Amino acid sequence: MLPVTASITKNRQTPATLRAMLARAYGPDQVPDERDGDEGWWSELGHGWFNVAYRLRLRDGREVVAKIAPPADVEVMTYERGAMGIELATIALLRERTEVPVPEVHHVDTTHDLVDADWFTMALVEGEDLGELSTTLLPAELDRLDAVRGDLTRRINEVRGPWFGPLAGPGERTWRATFTRLVEDVLRDGERRAVDTGVEPDEVRALLRAHGGTLEEVTEPRLVEWDLWPPNVMVHDGEVVAVIDHERAFYGDPLVEAGFCGITTPELGDPAAFLRGYGHPGVLTDTELRRRQLYSLHLLLVMVVETVYRGHTDPTQYDWARARLAEVVAALRDGRP
């Protein structure tokens, strides 16, 4: 199992509360016998930095997952507000309109009487995430599975949306307006908590204005996950069995997807296998290149600012993302790849 992640957004609960949640979701008869003690029937899953998730065993032996939104008194970034609702909406959309494998949701609770936040339970997906496996698989096998990630991303992107922006709305008529708002939200989040990103917010705004015309090429809203990195792909017996963690999805430009990041920011991973699976030639036009740089700019801003909101004590992510952010800003400023 992955090590438990240290983040103040993790809304950890006591075994007694977990029992109450299971009673509500599956009925009192499925609550583990108290004589079993507090060991064995529950464990915290170490995956992710935002929501907390527990692996739970019901009395009949079935195993499920409970996922809980951050505590009500913990400030989150603007785009993270209502993230659990986004995840549930995305799962429903993917189950209805695609064959992309996603977990089955069993119960949703928004009452806040057992826990001070929304939570839901879903089927446990057996397997390991592709991020974990990347250190143990042979290169050819890793290449094959990353190509599957590309194929699944393409299938997700084939879902057309009614507008640009949040799945539940309100949306925008143009992608430029939506993406400008996304960047502005992150800048304001950083300013609110006095995060030193190493870049003046007004310079970011100026770069977005200078290159924003490239965003106007995108005229059709598509469903994008934005967060479909290898750790969000579950693998069992050598096959992809599920895509997880959908709380960052929105309607936008498919080029914003995680698998394309390596084209303009190589440190974010070699995109070759992903692109092959997606069916993308990997060659961008000049305007696509600028858009992709803007998307890296946005992502790296998020990665810097979120370290403060999540209470990171290890500076590794902050230092790495800030250095990459400076590189992207310089490239955009100089008009180079």
UniProtKB/TrEMBL annotation:
<keyword id="KW-0418">Kinase</keyword>
<feature type="domain" description="Aminoglycoside phosphotransferase">
    <location>
        <begin position="42"/>
        <end position="279"/>
    </location>
</feature>
<dbReference type="GO" id="GO:0016301">
    <property type="term" value="F:kinase activity"/>
</dbReference>
<dbReference type="Pfam" id="PF01636">
    <property type="entry name" value="APH"/>
</dbReference>
<protein>
    <submittedName>
        <fullName>Predicted kinase, aminoglycoside phosphotransferase (APT) family</fullName>
    </submittedName>
</protein>
<dbReference type="InterPro" id="IPR002575">
    <property type="entry name" value="Aminoglycoside_PTrfase"/>
</dbReference>
<dbReference type="InterPro" id="IPR051678">
    <property type="entry name" value="AGP_Transferase"/>
</dbReference>
<keyword id="KW-0808">Transferase</keyword>
<dbReference type="InterPro" id="IPR011009">
    <property type="entry name" value="Kinase-like_dom_sf"/>
</dbReference>
